[in-house]
Write the structure tokens for this entry.
Amino acid sequence: MATSDDYKRQVMKDLAGGDKEILPDESNTDYQNFDDFAQRSSRDERHQIFSRSFHPDQVPASQMEPELQKAIAQIKPNERHDVAQEFLSHLKKQGLGDRELEKQLGLSSHNPKQMNADDVSKLAGFAYHNHPNVFHEVLADQPALVKFLSNPVIGAALGAIAAKWMGGRR
């Protein structure tokens, strides 16, 4: 697609036409809702789905970052700290120290328990744009974040997950 608008039009056309992406279904598990999916799916299954659905080539960072800010603001503070810890841990494996990230991203702290929603949003946006695999790893470990994303384009990407939990129901 040439532009984000073209992509949106194509997604809406596909949705209106009933087109859907078929995911390989090794487990043939039907999920009742997103919470059921988050609890019963394997980490590998979540990682695989999130890797296909959330990538800067499909959803530009300019659309994803505001959604991440809203979603992170809605999760409970203890979950937000867990998300921050996960991002810092995975980014450290990429050679980025917490103090280096604090300076580079303008975070209020390098301690995940002292980070506010804005700090965690900056970490998430940085990972999404610069280290998509880290972003997918954190979503696989902390799937509660995904249910607060609301942008229609992001929602269309979540259609793959919805198709998975709706299974064979017609």
Q: What stands out?
A: Residues 8 and 153 are 6 Å apart (CA to CA). Confidence is low (pLDDT under 50) at residues 22-28.
